[in-house]
Design goal:
- By secondary structure, this protein is mainly α.
- Helix content is 68%, strand content 0%.
- It has three helices and no strands.
- The longest helix has 22 residues, at 2-23.
- The radius of gyration is 14 Å and the shape is flat.
- It starts with a helix and ends with a helix.
Length: 60
C-alpha cells in the first residue's frame, strides 16, 4: 500500500507542484486538489488569474 502511494505521489502530485512553482504560485495550492469542489475552484483560479511570473516579466 505504501509503495502505491509513493508511485502515485511521484507520478501525479510532484509534477503538479513543479508546475505551480514554475508558474510563480506556492506548491501548497496542491492541497486544493484533495478537497472536492475546492479543486474545481482552484483550477479555475489558476487558469484565469494573471500568473505572478508574467506580472514580473511585464513590469520590467
Amino acid at each position: 500500500m505504501a509503495l502505491a502511494f509513493v508511485i502515485w505521489f511521484v507520478a501525479f502530485v510532484l509534477p503538479l507542484i513543479l508546475v505551480l512553482r514554475k508558474a510563480g504560485y506556492s506548491g501548497w495550492w496542491i492541497l486544493l486538489f484533495f478537497i472536492p469542489l475546492a479543486n474545481i475552484i482552484g483550477l479555475w483560479i489558476f487558469a484565469t488569474a494573471r500568473w505572478p511570473n508574467l506580472r514580473d516579466r511585464d513590469q520590467t
